Amino acid sequence: MANDVDTLATALCATTDDMLKEHPDLAPWCSPVDSTPRLSNAELVTLAMMQAILGFTSEAKRLRRARAHLRHLFRYLPQQPGYNKRLRKAAGLMRSANRIPATTTSVWSDDAWVVDSTPVECGRSHETVKRSGLAGWAEYGYCVSHRRFFWGLHLHLVCTLQGLPIAFGLTGAKANERETLLDLLAAECELLRERQGQTLIGDKNYFGRDFERELSELGVQLLRPARKGERERPGAALLKPLRLVIESINETFKGQLDLERHRGRTPGGVIARVMQRILALTAAIWHNEASGQTVLRSLIAYDH
Predict the structure, then answer these.
(1) Domain segments of the chain: what residues?
(2) Spatial distance between the Cα atoms of 220 and 113, rounded to a whole number of angstroms
(3) Distance CA 12, CA 18 (A)
(4) pLDDT class for 33, splitting at 50, 70, 90?
(5) Which residues make beta-bridge pairs with 223?
(6) Burial class (CB in 10 A: 0-12, 13-18, 19+), 49
(7) With the C-alpha atoms ordered 176, 181, 186, 187, is the resulting torsion angle positive or negative?
(8) CA dist., res. 262 & res. 78, Å (int)
(9) What is the DSSP letter of 138?
């Protein structure tokens, strides 16, 4: 199998189309009086994924590039307003399309996960904060890694050691990481149903007797560094190299997939643009494994 962006797009489009034929209820709702869209839902998901993986933060620039170079993949390309409108409605569809390729990879069943949250900045000026449609959800928070305050959200990620997203969620910047993790695992309860003894690797923020007890009841063993004043915890020697994994995954989202340049201005817009990037990483890992690549999280073959 070829390892290039055209082959990846074709494979994802075919997989999404098969999913929608089997589960048509997953398609975004549209009025019965609306005509059949000229760009199918499967093609919309594929176009959204390609926008993220090719590094286009501007929809207008992305569509100009598509009209010049991707006519062989898409029968019709919408104008920017129509594309934005459909993209916001397709966040749920992208989430479903993300799960299909993820579950068919060999790394989906890994018995070790990493967990962390990373800032998703949504504005910098005071006027933006006052007028933004994200007010009430986005908050002022502090990024420990970069030692800076920001206004926006946190993307919470549970991933395999190869970088495959398993569970994820967007919250305000001040949301408690431990509570968010428990909520994610409760919402995705089927993930742990057949995974007794799952190991979860986190940083020092994932602490607390009650928190660890709840994880233990779910069959999850937490591996984290000891906090100040604590005894050395089991597995401490393994933590340093493994903790670098989640930092590397966050850097993939921010450095290669431009997570903080999402340009979303409403809750629906931000959710859709974050889902684009999660889908892009999942699709790349899925296709890299299918094409026999040794580094599953590499985007080099697809970002040009």
Answers:
(1) 1-104+263-304, 111-261
(2) 10
(3) 10
(4) low
(5) 201
(6) buried
(7) positive
(8) 20
(9) B
Of the options 3.30.420.10, 2.60.40.1730, 2.60.120.680, 3.10.310.40, the CATH number for the domain spanning 111-261 = 3.30.420.10
Element (H, E) at 85: helix 80-89
**SS3 of 201, please?**
strand
Round to whole Å and give the CA distance between 118 and 20.
32
**CA gap 206, 268 in Å, rounded:** 29
In angstroms, rounded to a whole number, what is the distance separating the alpha carbons of residues 1 and 301?
A: 13
The neighbour count for residue 115, using CB atoms within 10 Å, is 25
Q: How far apart are CA 274 and CA 155, in angstroms?
A: 9
- Structure pTM? 0.92
Note the pLDDT tens digit of each residue in 210-242: 999 999 999 999 988 888 888 888 776 777 777
User: What's the rounded Cα separation, in Å, for the pair 261 and 66?
Assistant: 20
Q: How many CB atoms lie within 10 A of CB 46?
A: 28
* Residue 118 CB-density burial (10 A; 0-12 exposed, 13-18 middle, 19+ buried): buried
- Give the CA-trace dihedral at 22, 27, 30, 32, to 10 degrees: 0
- The DSSP letter of residue 44 is H
User: Each residue of 145-173: pLDDT tens digit?
Assistant: 778 899 999 999 999 999 999 999 999 99
Percent of the chain with pLDDT over 70: 97
